[in-house]
Amino acid sequence: MRLTSLAATGYRSLRSIRLDIGRLALFVGENGVGKSNLYRAMQLIKASAEGTLSYEIAREGGMQSALWTGKRRSGPVRMVFNAQFDDEETAIQAGYSVETGLAPSYRVEVGIRPPAAAGFTFEPQIKEETLTIDSGRRPVEMMGRKGPAVYARDDSGRRIEHPVKLLDSETALAILGGSGRYPEIGDLRATVLGWRFYHGFRTDRDSPVRQPSLAITAPMLDEDGRNLAAVFATLVHIREDTADLDRCIADALGGATLDVPIPGETATFGLRLPEFPQRLFRPEELSDGQMRFLALAGALLSYRLPRLIALNEPETSLHPSMLPALADMIAQAAERTQLWIVTHSRVLADEIAARTGARALTVVRRDGATLIEGVKLDGTFDEE
Fold it and tell me: Distance from CA of residue 131 to its chain's centroid?
């Protein structure tokens, strides 16, 4: 199930924006234009699937911080997030053609507590949620929620009321999707939970990427990079194919080679540099840029890739000479999964575009609102 569009309204600098998303979504812009808010909107869709949407908004300052601060229309104050998908595999199983497909769409509205209602003053409250599936004939609502009441279709297609009233901080996508009673909701939730967000990596002395990992087969990198050594050990000793990894590390790090011993109780790794071939440089000795590149290599070239990888300013702390190798890794990953990349480096964006043919979308800010240059509010491009 592939993400095909994302829309957000009323969130921080995202007054109203909709984006059509292909295999590789590439966004470039200056600091302060709201690129990270686009990335964060994606994260909040995943938080809804996890059941932590209210918590995540509260953690970033609550509704008074997260709401669009510009001029608003009259009516309820809401943040709205909408994600649309394409599910060709399920469509084929259900007897639809590949051209018709199935198009699930998830929408969630978040608001504030009315003056006379129970709850904390600035607590984010889930007001409405819907999950519809469009097969090309007519949209069918698989889940609908207003306030605490939720209706959904069971595995026989009957529309029933979920027996438990939800709290204002709970999402129906998480509660119903994890119940096992509603297959379509569960499938969509599983898809979104499979996304991975890599918002930089800590590279201080005690950072997770510099530590040994438990010796457990690791098909993909954790979001904080704590299993990086296990990811490398899985590639070296289980997959036994590190040609792409070795080439990218050598290109980015001046001919360095990755050394990964057979794990004992823990997995470890180090680098051997051409000027000191007999000396193994362990993670605690490597520079921030070297460690960040190695973590990105673990994220993009792991044994198995997530359903979607989102990178926020992956060029941070990297020397400009490393950017072609980073673009190579991104291009290789794009052949295996969907990618969402936000960067302020035009050089990196051009390197990625040259390898993948992806169009780099320029993020700008006008009248306080984040926009995509040349893209209308409905997500379509201007004719020019």
Answer: 20
- What SS3 state is found at 266? strand
Q: Rounded distance, CA 70 to CA 149, Å? A: 32
Neighbouring CB atoms inside 10 A of 328's CB total 20
- The per-residue pLDDT for range 286-324, each reduced to its tens digit, is 999 999 999 999 999 999 999 999 999 999 999 999 999
What tokens does 358 get? 């992806």
The model's pTM: 0.90
Give the model's confidence band at 121: pLDDT under 50 very low, under 70 low, under 90 confident, else very high: low
Domain boundaries, the chain: 2-195, 201-361
- Residue 14's contacts (CB-CB under 8 Å, 6 or more residues apart) are 8, 34, 37, 38, 41, 68, 369, 370
Question: CB neighbours of 167 closer than 8 A, spacing ≥ 6?
Answer: 148
201-361, CATH topology level: Rossmann fold (3.40.50)
DSSP bridge partners of 110: 79, 126
CB half-sphere exposure, 101, CA atoms < 13 A: 12
* Of 151, 140, 133, 143, nearest in space to 90 by CA: 133
Cα(299)–Cα(352) distance, integer angstroms: 17
In 209-345, alpha helices (H): 228-233, 243-252, 288-300, 323-334
Partners of 366 in the β-ladder: 369
- Whether 345 shows a pLDDT value over 60: the answer reads yes
Provide the 3-class DSSP secondary structure of residue 132: strand
DSSP 134-200: E-SS-EEEEEEEETTEEEEE-TTS-EEE-SSPPPTT--HHHHHHTTSS-HHHHHHHHHHHTEEEE--
Kindly state the helix (H) or strand (E) to which residue 59 belongs, with its residue range. helix 53-59
